[in-house]
Input
Amino acid sequence: MGLELAFFLAIGGLAVLFAVGMLLSENAVHSALFLIGNFGCVAMLFLMLDAPFIGMVQIVVYTGAIMVLFLFVIMLLGAEQTTDTDRRFRWLTGTATALAIAFIAAIAVPMVIGGGLVLPEGQPGLPQVRIVHGANLDNLNVTLTGDSLEEPLVIEDLAFGEASDFIEVPAGEYSVMLAQAEGNTALMPPSMSPTISLEAGDVFSVLAYGTLDTNTGSFPDVALLPNEFVNTPDDEGRIVAFNAYDQERTLALVDLGADQRVTVVERDVRDEEGNVVYAERASEEDPLVAQREIVIADRVIADNLTYGGEPVVVTYPEGEDYNLAVVDMTNFDSYIQPNDPQGSIQDSVVMRLTGYPISTATEQTFVIATEPTTADAQPRPTLLDSDQTVLLIETLAGFGSPLAIGQILFTDYLLPVNMVGFLLLVALVGVIVMSRPAGLSPEQKRRRAVRRRVSRPLVNVISQQTGTDVYVDVPRLDQPESGD
Amino acid sequence: MDFVVPTEFFFVLSLVLFVLGALGVLLRKNAILVFMSVELMLNSANLALVAFARQWNSLNGHIFVFFVMTVAAAEVAVGLALIVAIFKSKRSINIDDLHQMEG
Output
């Protein structure tokens, strides 16, 4: 028997014992204390059920506020002794207990013997996709066609680095047509269009990447980057990294740390006899520089990012200003090859990102793409959505955490929250009205005072004999009532 | 999804607590105790809601429990004020003394 099950049985048994104690106790204060114990046990069960927020609210609201109110009223009324004097329905006790046991047995026994409830899992929703333009091309028109769609889904005039909203589509196979927005000319023959397959519950960014080169016959392609709306771990944000830039090299995303360490060590390397190896670089002015060493001793966030390969999904601790670098993985912890004496240090660091924030409860789609250029200039890398506005997804925080509940409470359930607040206000007013001393209007007070002063004994006699109240109308006296 | 402690266990526990609360409502004569039994029943319903929320991996159950707690707090405030008012006029909170409607 596992520890958790033993804990459940202990706490659950204690809760039942406390409830029975509350039921049988002769003293109302003891009953209230038993109920506090029961609520405490239930709070611990809430913690077991991944509901820390509800558990804490249970302790604060129930065992704290509500039960203190109960104890206060019991003390106020002096109603500690609850011995039930009138036993007219003595038979009720036995009957009700027997029926209760029968009821529990009728439900619980088949459940235990019959292998439990038939509890369906949560149904996954429709697949959701968004189109992201990360290709080395001008604005695109993207068309999704598939058998399950009645009309093709068209995203028009998507600029580089932009993304559509998430769109719900039926599950099925889709073909993605890319066309230039200007003139709506297709970039590839329909037979070459990439196809994607979406299943229920999927959330994807459909990224268009690559370029159109009619000489080599290369067409833009489409990659599916998996997104998720739920549950990044506490204090960590999620990153979906994808390489759409470098066709030859395998890239890695590294955290350089606070000191921004891509250490470049320039030193001479000599052979066994003490001669400088790289003679052609050793000049009269700078004779010792022969080799550069790149030291990246820092944390690797995502690695093995091959061009168009599998997106890498990682979580990383939150932070305000990370110094990140996208580097060539082949130069990790290694000397630059002797046949490359110039040392492509600048090349091996593809991109530097300073002050990059990673926040918890978010997912950033991190695409290294080629900046679109018109001329035949050297392709330059760029990060899609470097200011984290377009591709950032706000995920729900951990299940049952205050943050997650707050997010739902103040978005989907804003109206009920307001209504409950109003209900509490009404209850407040109601309690004040009820606890007010039996009120008399000023007019009634004046009449009563006058009646008392003039003919109280007489009025009492009359009203006792007739059973009705008597009202004596007397002119108002000017003297203050303090003269009474 | 498989849990170490299955949802059924929590459901049965909440059932037992609910029935105990119902017994309290039926059998006790003290209005405050009847009221406390109602609280016990509400709480057992909350337990079932949270257990099913875990089963379905949906936070809506938690939200519902939150609302139940809020309403319970309002209800307790009003209910106890009622009991105090009744005690002031009748000098008793034994519910058998409070039968205004004979029948």
User: Anything to note?
Assistant: Residues 204 and 226 of chain A are 5 Å apart (CA to CA). Residues 259-270, 276-297, 333-346 of chain A have pLDDT under 50 and may be disordered.
